[in-house]
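*** Query protein ***
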Amino acid sequence: MVIQKKHKRMAWVVGCAALLTLGAWMVVSALSQNSLFFYNASDVAAEGFTPESDIFRVGGMVVEGSVVKSKGVTTTFQIADFERPMARPLTVSYAGALPDLFREGEGVVVSGRLITPTEIQASEVLAKHDENYQPKITYQDERS
């Protein structure tokens, strides 16, 4: 009778440990699948760069004076590295409305396809801001 109680207790301990291990594995695998990383602009512009997939992300700073808006909604701009701003920049073409925080000299992350070794056709542009960002506060008149 004593042996049966020990076996039951051991079975519970082993079962709980198995469930905890399974839960931890599920959390880690979900996090690794959903994490999105981006390449630096200088890494993409380097010789011999081959992306792991057709669509990938590149992060960098928008080069001052490089933003050119064409007829329609196409915008072309260049991005360079945060750490190495004097490295060879990448040219980005994007058809669509740019985010409100998009500015020259500010950080962006673009998602798209590599057309040439130094040109990307972007499908998405995300503007980055620092921790001191404060949105504009607009007050509506009570009479309206």
